[in-house]
Design brief:
Blueprint lengths: L1 H31 L6 H12 L11 H9 L32 E6 L7 E5 L4 E4 L7 E2 L9 E6 L9 E5 L18 E4 L7 E2 L5 H9 L1 H10 L7 E5 L14 H11 L3 E5 L4 H8 L6 E3 L12 E4 L11 H7 L4 E4 L15 E4 L2 E3 L1
Parallel strand pairs: 9-10, 9-12, 10-11, 12-13, 13-14
Antiparallel strand pairs: 1-2, 2-3, 3-4, 5-6, 6-7, 7-8, 14-15
Length: about 350
């Protein structure tokens, strides 16, 4: 009986030992060789940050040593008597308040540490010449105010030159035209006192020019003076499925055409109210209609600006019958496979001209 018990105990111990051995192997395989194959390399890198460079080993009781050292650091000014030295780790609130969102970038002048530059999400660039005690805004309201990074040119003889990058990760503020997206780089040649946008990096100018490509094609076809011409617009929204018109090409194109004397008949399944009440509120000579073909009646050309589903396969013969002249300007290159030339329709798209 005793032998049986001893045997069963031995089997149990063997099973337990086998479980822990397999578990260790499983942990090793998932911890260091999972996901994208970089986990093992990352683990080695982390270890390299912890090891003592003299011994090549991670110090014993390292965490306890960290906690012991932390107790020797100066206390926060908010907790007791204040800091023990001017260069302590205590922090004092400085700088302008409520001046445009959180601070995104801060840099200290290498040639004069009393000079500090800081930039925020929408507050522009600020400069201090007294270690941050007082600040003054140094960026102009004529260009984008979203500062995301600041750097000083560290090359010999170039310390007075600074660069700042602009741009939030996404979007614009709801309800107005203020964009959080960047618009290239800013440059200062006098230690950050004044700043100038670098034209070659200003993506906004490039993007806005791209939005006017169709308008330029219309002008090339009908002339600089568009007085007496009417254009039927299909689509106002930035993209199909929404009434959002922020940065929509339709805003720029319609304004350009109207400024040149044209009249507009516009249709969009969702964005008409948005256009009327905000984005095109002040623009004259626009008539809003309730169907796509109504927008073409007695118009000189169809201008497609948003690729709504109902615009994808229209009745081209009906389009010809509604228009004064059978001309289509396709801002989405949506009809370039329909052989419109054979239908007797003059067709213009982005990048190409088919007559």
């Amino acid at each position: 009986m005793i032998k049986i018990r001893i045997g069963l105990l031995g089997i149990a111990i063997g099973i337990i030992a086998l479980f822990f051995v397999n578990r260790d192997k499983s942990l090793e395989s998932t911890e260091f060789k999972n996901v994208d194959g970089h986990a093992e390399a990352r683990a080695k890198w982390l270890r390299s940050r912890l090891v003592d460079p003299q011994t090549g080993e991670i110090p014993v009781n390292m965490r306890q040593r960290e906690l012991t050292f932390a107790k020797t650091l100066p206390k926060s000014i908010f907790s007791s008597k204040g800091s023990r030295a001017d260069d302590s780790l205590s922090y004092i609130r400085r700088g302008p308040q409520n001046a445009g969102g959180r601070t995104r970038a801060l840099a200290v002048d290498l040639s004069n540490t009393s000079n500090i530059l800081a930039g925020g999400v929408s507050g522009g660039m600020w400069r201090s010449t007294n270690f941050g005690l007082t600040w003054s805004k140094v960026s102009s309201n004529d260009y984008v105010q979203n500062i995301s990074c600041i750097v000083q040119d560290s090359r010999p003889g170039k310390k007075d030159v600074w660069y700042a990058g602009t741009g939030e990760g996404r979007g614009s503020l709801t309800g107005n035209d203020f964009t959080l997206l960047g618009n290239g780089l800013l440059k200062s040649t006098n230690k950050g006192v004044t700043w100038t946008p670098l034209a070659s990096t200003q993506v906004e100018k490039v993007n806005n020019a791209q939005k006017l490509v169709i308008a330029q094609k219309i002008i090339a076809r009908f002339g600089e003076d568009l007085t007496g011409f009417t254009f039927g617009i299909w689509g106002l929204a930035f993209k199909p499925g929404t009434d959002d018109m922020r940065e929509a090409p339709a805003i720029y194109i319609i304004k350009e055409l109207v400024n040149r004397g044209a009249k507009i008949k516009a249709y969009d399944p969702k964005a008409i109210d948005e256009a009327k009440e905000y984005y095109l509120k002040e623009v004259q000579n626009i008539t809003y209609v309730t169907s796509k073909y109504e927008a073409l009646k007695d118009a000189d050309a169809l201008v497609l600006l948003t690729e709504w589903k109902e615009f994808r396969s229209p009745d081209f013969q009906k389009i010809k019958a509604q228009l004064k002249t059978p001309v289509i300007f396709d801002g989405r290159n949506q009809y370039n496979t329909f052989n419109l030339k054979e239908m007797g329709i003059e067709y213009y798209q982005i990048g190409k001209i088919i007559i």
